[in-house]
């Protein structure tokens, strides 16, 4: 995939990419140096087991490159996304036509500062989870239950891509989280390669946060601007308290100053999570889950 992509780059971009790869000490085959492979031997073995479980137990499509290649992105190995909402209600301004992904956090912050001056709410969301499914130091620094969650979440996105995105994105995010929580506990109990208690705590933290986010989202648009400011401050504090027993991945995902852009991002995870989690129950079939989601009344009007 790397060599194929280089054919479409100009000469200067090609040189830049090669220099960047040298700077982060990656090898031409997309794998880290042997010293890093030795350092992360446990995580590599866990990921191999997760790939096998996804394929044989969950019976999902696992691409050949799924969390196989190595790449470093930025100083902290995290991807930067910019979310933008109107200030008076939680919604995207479709007239903006901005890209949500930025190659560096510096670029994202510059764009956010400009949009904030124009009266929008912004949030720079940083994550190691991307549909490109690349390995990096930050991902492998997380505890085992978080690595498992990320792989289970991202494989849903890759399956949705493989199937031509049969459901709207906000349902896809809720489905991915519901499957990830379900699969983490199932993987822990069936293989004993993951601590079941840790997987259950991770699920409990996410679900408490989503319950709270959903409740606050329902009342937000009915409040005055002054009342909303108080809600943002209270939400920031309470969500951080909810995330406190969680792992570093959960804190990285949820601990941001709350505003309308925060709700815009988090509602994709939270708004349909509990309905979809109930659909999954104690067994999982992707085709059945997709059919059930497409039959939901909200799906008929989702974009």
- Sheet/helix structural class: mainly alpha
Mean pLDDT across every amino acid position: 87
Number of helices: 14
Question: How much strand?
Answer: 5-15%
* H and E order: HHHHEEHEHHHHHHHHH
Give a topology summary:
Blueprint: H1 2-6, H2 11-23, H3 34-39, H4 41-56, E1 79-85, E2 101-102, H5 105-117, E3 121-127, H6 137-141, H7 144-162, H8 169-191, H9 196-220, H10 225-243, H11 248-254, H12 260-270, H13 273-280, H14 286-294
Antiparallel strand pairs: 1-2, 1-3
Helix pairs in contact: 4-7, 7-8, 8-9, 8-12, 8-13, 9-10, 9-12
What would you note in describing this structure?
With 303 residues, this protein is mainly alpha-helical. It has 14 helices and three strands. The protein has helices spanning 2-6, 11-23, 34-39, 41-56, 105-117, 137-141, 144-162, 169-191, 196-220, 225-243, 248-254, 260-270, 273-280, 286-294; strands at residues 79-85, 101-102, 121-127. It has a three-stranded antiparallel sheet with strand order 2-1-3.
């Amino acid at each position: 995939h790397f060599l194929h992509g280089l054919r479409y780059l100009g000469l200067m971009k090609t040189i830049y990419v090669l220099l960047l790869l040298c700077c982060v000490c990656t090898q031409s085959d997309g794998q880290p140096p042997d010293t890093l492979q030795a350092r992360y031997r446990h995580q590599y073995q866990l990921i191999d087991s997760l790939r096998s479980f996804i394929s044989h137990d969950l019976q999902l499509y696992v691409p050949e490159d799924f969390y196989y290649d190595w790449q470093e992105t930025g100083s902290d190995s995290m991807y930067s996304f910019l979310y933008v909402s109107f200030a008076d209600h939680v919604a995207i301004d479709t007239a903006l036509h901005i890209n949500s992904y930025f190659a560096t956090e510096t670029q994202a912050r510059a764009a956010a500062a400009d949009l904030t001056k124009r009266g929008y709410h912004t949030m720079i969301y940083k994550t190691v989870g991307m549909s490109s499914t690349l390995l990096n130091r930050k991902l492998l620094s997380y505890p085992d239950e978080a690595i498992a969650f990320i792989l289970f979440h991202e494989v849903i996105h890759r399956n949705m891509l493989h199937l031509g995105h049969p459901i709207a994105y906000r349902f896809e995010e809720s489905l991915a989280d519901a499957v990830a929580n379900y699969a983490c506990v199932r993987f822990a109990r069936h293989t004993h390669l993951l601590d079941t208690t840790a997987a259950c705590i991770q699920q409990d933290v996410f679900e408490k946060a989503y319950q709270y986010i959903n409740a606050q989202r329902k009342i937000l648009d009915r409040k005055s601007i002054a009342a909303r400011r108080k809600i943002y401050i209270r939400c920031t504090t309470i969500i951080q308290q909810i995330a406190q027993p969680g792992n570093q991945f959960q804190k990285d995902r949820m601990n941001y100053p709350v505003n309308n852009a925060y709700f815009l991002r988090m509602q994709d995870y939270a708004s349909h999570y509990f309905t979809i989690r109930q659909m999954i129950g104690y067994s999982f079939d992707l085709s059945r889950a997709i059919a059930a989601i497409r039959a939901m009344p909200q799906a008929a009007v989702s974009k």
